[in-house]
Amino acid sequence: MKFLVTGATGKLGSKIVEKILETIPASQLVVSVRNPEKAKHLSERGVEVRHGDFDLPETMDAAFTGIDRLLIISADGDNETRIRQHTDAIAAAERANVQLIAYTSIANASESKMILSPPHQATEAAILKTGIPYAFLRNNWYLENEIASIQGVLAGAPWVTSAKTGRTGWALQQDYAEAAATVLTGEGHENKIYELSGTPLTQEALVSALESVLEKDIAVQQVDDDTYADTMKDAGVPEAVIPFLLGIQEGIREGELDVVSSDFESVLGRPATSIKEALRIILNQIS
């Protein structure tokens, strides 16, 4: 059986590949990457590296040939671009007669009003339309997304948010990667939707856990969206990115990431890494 992972040199993709290689021979794994040279370290370990560029649909046909199970990792970019890229990749998977498509989606994708949700909704719908067995990995939120805020706290800044009492199911990328690897290579995951979420926490609860780990007090500033935007601008965030960040804060505030689920435990046989332990891991990575 041949397994393929797209975006295998990215932050999440590289973690998924490493988990897969713990359980199957390298000869069964294929990776599809925009720049094969960046995956040379994988080819040296026996992994087949293929050129697959979501912006060049013809490369997807060659990349997916002979693949039994495919993991499409959500691409980066604006919503319109991602919808086009994902749709083209799914069409190529259908032409290649893959037997399963796993996809890294977003929390509660079918109902979500999050700024990030349209590409995931369109992608899930496109996969369903093919009739190919699927597994939707609805990843809630990476704790790594908060690294900039954590670094700010370490430098003495307050934790600034406009998310109010909205809760987020933070988990480590490593947990999401292990779940994806398990679903792609394991049995019994066909036509399943997994809501992969840590225990939902408010911003204050996350900061309280961080205070405990750092053994220091951290001020939390709940602000309105205009003040949050100004704070991000003052911190050097590009103006084009700020509306996107505001949309995320709004989505959290409106409960879009407040998902209570035991699917991590169902897939991994354990819950997601506890928030304090996850924060310790993050702090070790950035220290």
Automatic annotation (TrEMBL):
Organism of provenance: Oceanobacillus picturae
Stored CDD domains: TMR_SDR_a (cd05269)
Domain of life: Bacteria
Residues of the NmrA-like domain: 3-238
InterPro entries in UniProt: NAD(P)-bd_dom_sf, NmrA-like, NmrA-type_oxidoreductase
SUPFAM superfamilies reported in the protein's UniProt record: NAD(P)-binding Rossmann-fold domains (SSF51735)
Protein name, per record: Quinone oxidoreductase 2
Gene3D superfamilies: NAD(P)-binding Rossmann-like Domain, UDP-galactose 4-epimerase, domain 1
